[in-house]
Amino acid sequence: MTEKRYRKLNSTKQLEKIMAKYYALSRYHRFWGKPTNRHLAWVTSGAPVELLRSFGIHPVYPENYGAICGSRKVSTQLCQVAENAGYSQDLCSYARSHIGSILRPDLAPMKGLPKPDLLITCSNICGTVLKWYEALARIFDVPLLIIDTPYLTSDMTNHAQDYVHKQLQDMVPTLEKITGRAYNQNKMKEAISSSKETISLWTDIRGLCKNTPSPLNAPDLFIHMAPIVVLRGTKQAVNYYKLLKAEVQQRVEQRQSAINGEKTRLVWDNIAIWYNLYPFFKMFSERNACFVADTYSGGWAMELEQGEPLESLARTYTEIFLNRSAEFRAQNMIDLMEEYNADGFVMHSNRSCKPYSLVQGIIRRKVMAKTGVPGLLIEADMADQRVFAEEPTRNRIQAFLETVEAI
Amino acid sequence: MQYYLGVDIGSLTTKVVLINKEENIIGWATKRSGYSGKDQALKLIDTLLNEKGIPRNKVIRTIATGYGRITFPADREMSEITCQAKGVYHLYNQARTIIDIGGQDSKVIKILPQGKVIDFAMNDKCAAGTGRFLEVMANALEVEIDNLGGLAGQAQGTCSISSFCTVFAESEVISHVAAGASKQDIVKGVCHSVAKRVASMTAGIGLEPELIFTGGVARNGGVAKALSNQLSTDIKIPDNPVITAALGAALIGITT
Amino acid sequence: MAEIMKNLTEYHDLTLLLEEAAYNGNKRQIRWPGYQFFGYFCSYWPEELLLAVGLEPLRILPPGTNSTPALLPTYCCSLARNSLHSAIKKDLDDLKGVGFAHTCDTMQCLESIWSTEYQQKVLSLVPPVHLKAPGAKDYYKEEMKSLLHHLSEITGKNPASVELDQALELTNHIRKLTKELDQLRAYLPSQLTADLLRAGQVMPREKYARVLGNALPILEELGEKQSTKPLILVSGAVLETNSLFEMIENLGGRVAADDTCTGYRHYAEPAEPQLLKDPLEFIIHRYMEMPPCPCRHLQLNERIDYLEGLADKRKVAGAVLVIRKFCEPHAWDSVPIAKRLKDKGIKTLVLELEGSAVGGQERTRLQAFLESLMGNS
Asked: C67: domain range?
């Protein structure tokens, strides 16, 4: 009998409950949406959802759905449906899975997502979301709202901030028209306040991993980040993270580690490999290596800027890490390595996510030069299993861990 | 008597077909292309004409198709898609969809009555879904390619092979062998994988009966069965599935 | 067609343009000494601003097929990889700088890598993606002003309205000439038109304007009086060579409409003529209203409507949508565009290319496509 190397979190049960409730609510929106005058929107993960919440809009996230398709190992099949409809195999696998689920709901988890009343896409995470949502707008013939957050080659300029601010200001009357509700400043402040608290709690939780041994491993971070994405701006998210934080805090106090016998501390970069979450990280944990930090789950933890609500949203959402230069992101990783006392890092070269992955070469070089620790690059895809090759990957991981352990 | 020659110079095999004005096949020949498909084709033509006792000057027109068509001294060259459509339609006048899997490529062709091509899809960039894939796997399993169909027929189950890439798929096969799976089950999985790749091309084009399967791989019963299952449709395979494009080329010679 | 090509060498101006197209700017230091070239990648990069400060725009069209520089993974387009490879080989060191107009995720990352790795001056312009967004125009203006300021630091020339006016006059004149050329293209060999349009992106602009102006009447004379070939619309991104155009021509087709970044779309003007007096306003208006590439959003179906209209106007029999391997924006657009054109009865071929060169595999597809247009099957 092999020793159990993965310590389960009790809070996970509660997480499963709230996520199940969220998806159930979403699925039955067609029954409760009209009577309560609450519209359902498909939203990109980087959109300033607080504004939408103030209008009572129920957000649903196709990217999160893509991750679910990946986790349930049905992404490949759905991608093929999209490919048969003419969508290139080189496009983002979240998008292909989602479009596949629309064309063949019979093959899709939960029979696909509930139909949207409107589409909201924010370009801060990538160029794909513009094209993906254009395709959706053609399929569903519902309003498409675009938030254009210009890419930041260095610090944000005033005119970029003004531009995003203007768009958000202009979105208010548009949303009023679509929802039939007046802009509610209080609801807006509430949503922002909830977001702020959620961010603070999630930051604390991640910060607890600075301890040795780390109370959490990468899979935990990937699973438990769901609320900060899909329930962002709600009290539910706040309550959940309070619960999780307490548990993680307790682990630290009792010196309970996520994995047995932590020897090597690593940092992860890029989105998770959803269809191979636990077995993949087991290749590390069985050699006493724990992922104490990552760049992905921290993506939603950037502090909401001060100021008037729309101004704050404009600033915060334009400055998210994926909208920044390689230099900025390299520094971010260097800081993580130092703060979390990491012995090495692993970068997932994710075929589906060009903005995240194409600069990994240069980031890796810089981080290795500055920190002196080794970094491993692994090619795979976040949701499409066809791209993942187990043996070659295992070889690389083994070689990498041998290198790290020898240092 | 007037004769027409169709020459299909593929990267693996060269085929020639000789027909008369009444569109009857007088003779045909195939051989590995080797280093020079053009030389091979010229030799085959010589041999064929000698065999049938037909003087060179009775061949009114020669049409070339296939990978090596550009440098072959023919009266005209046409794409193998157009030729395949023409040849298959001649044999099956109810044909509407053609799946052709050769040594290095696979195609799906949609045709109208009269054998007119209205749409097509090709994979010639990647070994997966072609005869090459089968070759690599047969090698890894140490079996003859010609036995693959038979082995697939004997399988009790199917070993799934999921990789995009032929090289990765090969390592999957080796893993299955190491795990103790039977050769038959693995071969069935291999055939299944080829069929799957090609079937998905079909979905993009739209499948309409009758469906005709041509190319060297059409002789592999394992792939034919897997295709038929995956597409939920009957498949017809010509007696000689390898010469249909050359036949089509020859037929085009009549109307050129 | 062979007749036209044979006679061309008699015409010095045409020969010059074809040479420039063949060199793709690679012999610039020998052929155009004394010019200060500034490189750029995307047709949204404002050549006018470069000209106004005394710089000569050079579209970077790297030679090479499928380079794999270490800093980029293989799953991005060969244009990005080949460009980076050129930079590593120091082929672009003579440039006064390199400009990135924000386009797609790949170019976004290339800019980041380039500015981190190379001493060379890298300037960025981030146009609005949503060109009809509230505040887009003001934002675009500030970006342009900021860029102009940085450009003037390179040459030490701070352009007043006068220089901008002059630059604008030159580019407008070039657009007028290329429009005339584009309208002749049904009567000229496809690869000839492609080369003549590409030459204007890799040689000094004033020279181009003069030489093309001289060449147009000759082309009008040399061109066929009637076109009997099936007319084709080609849409896509960057094509560094005329290979695709030549192949279509050799297979019996004629490219009568061109929506490629390095082809006519580089010069295309907004449908409505504009009356703005201020040069900067005029420039911004042109970039905001010109036929868009997939990376910009005007209205949901703006680009699709434009291509349908273009296909209609030029009476094309078929369309070839070119997608460079790993190019996401064009791959996304090809789905609704192919559908719209097919619904209109225009046969459409979606052709994936590794680079600009068209080989045996593409030939087979193009040939089968053209054969089906010409009714030979």
From this structure: 2-162
Residue C141 contacts residue A158 (beta carbons within 8 Å): no
What does the pLDDT look like over B159-217, one tens digit per residue? 888 776 888 888 889 889 999 999 999 999 999 989 988 888 888 788 999 999 999 99
Q: Which of residues 340-369 of C touch B (CB under 8 A)?
A: 352, 360-361, 363-365, 367-368
Which residues lie across from A40 on neighbouring strands?
A58
* Contact across the interface for B163 and A76, Cβ inside 8 Å: no
Which residue from A288, A283, A404 is spatially nearest to A345, judged by alpha carbons? A404
Q: Is residue C140 part of a domain?
A: yes
Please say whether the beta carbons of B20 and B2 come within 8 A.
yes
- The token pair at A342 is 């990491």
* CATH number of the domain bearing residue C82: 3.40.50.11890
Q: What subunits make at least 3 CB pairs under 8 angstroms with A?
A: B, C
Closest-approach residue (CA) in chain A for B167: A389
Query: ipTM more than 0.90?
Result: yes
d(CA A124, CA A151): 7
How far apart, in whole angstroms, are the C-alpha atoms of residue C79 and residue C96?
A: 21
B-chain residues within 8 Å CB-CB of A389? 163, 165, 168, 171
Interface list for C 320-349 with A (CB within 8 A) = 323, 325-326, 328-329, 331-336, 338-339
Contacting residues of A for B203, CB less than 8 Å apart: 84
pLDDT digits (tens, 9 = 90+) for C164-223: 999 999 999 999 999 999 999 999 999 999 999 999 999 999 999 999 999 999 999 988
Domains held by chain A: number: 1
Closest CA to C129 of C51, C49, C42, C57: C42
- Domains held by chain C: number: 1
- Cα–Cα dist A79/A96, whole Å: 5
Note down the domain range covering A24.
Answer: 11-181
Domain assignment of residue A113, yes or no: yes
Q: Would A105 be classed as within a structural domain?
A: yes
* Minimum Cα–Cα distance from C372: chain B residue: B117
